[in-house]
Amino acid sequence: MKMSTSHCMIITAIAAFLLSGTISSASADALPPYKDELFSAQTVMQTSDNGAFETINYDEMRDINGRDQVPEQRVQQKYVSLGIRKLQQDETLSLNGHRLDVTRVGPTDNAAFTVIFIHGRDGTRRLGANDFTFGGNFNRVKNLVAGNGGTYYSPTVRTFDSDGVANIVELIRYASEKSGGRPVILSCASMGSQICWGVTRDAASVKRLKGMLIMSGVTDPDFTKSAFYKAKLPMYFAHGSRDPVYAATDQQGLFEALYKSKYPTRFTLFDTGNHGTPIRMIDWRKVLNWILAS
To answer: Contact, 173 vs 204, CB < 8 A?
Structure first.
């Protein structure tokens, strides 16, 4: 039976009420399974640092050609559930003089939690809302977030400098206020990681954030001087071992330094993975549950 938009909104509101209590109790399973048999059944080759660091087996022929109907363009239908589009809206937000194009999935107000995805160079809000590229992983995160009463934002970042950081600082403030101060998680990919690192220095944003995910990103050697570091908010890294843009070893070095200082951090390395591999392969449910429970 097909559901109307109003029915979807009622279900989302109920999920937000139930999930807000779950999150506040720091449950390790705040988000229930969603297509885990397709997205979470990854082979762990090795672990270290008491499980904080893991190497995942990645195979291009299996994880791209075997997963996509059209390689890198359209995933097989079983990986996506398109009903979530009923909760999706393109809009332009006016935020204290900052105009920001976003795709929003989920309610404007009273979200149980918020996830913001920042694309890399040459990306737009379309990238983080595309149901069929990157193995359907964006469709999964949209369903995990909005399907559990949360709100997912994919904004267009036009510059990766202080202006771009300022726009996302305003989006974080807006999302936090609209949700009544509930958790906000910021995730950044590739060059978009420069936005994440910039936000870590904004004390007001740090007070509103629950944690961060950085995928295939540049390393910030001054992270330990940031307000985010001082607040000891959880930081999750994901990288491909063959990344030709930003070397995985650089990010691993930062992770190891953080782990040794007893900072809350995790690292997933995709063996033989390339620059875009973490976006395709990251287990969103595992990452979000770890951050929400930290």
So the answer is: yes
> Measuring CA to CA, which residue among 92, 197, 101 is closest to residue 157?
101
pLDDT in tens, 170-189: 999 999 999 999 999 999 99
Cα–Cα dist 135/111, whole Å: 27
The token duo for 96 is: 């204290």
Residue 4: other Cβ atoms inside 10 A: 9
Q: Residues 268, 238: contact at Cβ < 8 Å?
A: yes
For residue 120, count other CB atoms closer than 10 A to its CB.
23
Contact (Cβ atoms closer than 8 angstroms) between residue 121 and residue 114 = no
Tens digits of residue pLDDT in 103-137: 999 999 999 999 999 999 999 999 999 999 999 99
| Dihedrals phi, psi of 48, to nearest 5 degrees | -155, 180
The number of C-alpha atoms within 13 Å of 132 and in the hemisphere containing its C-beta is 10
DSSP conformational letter for 262: T
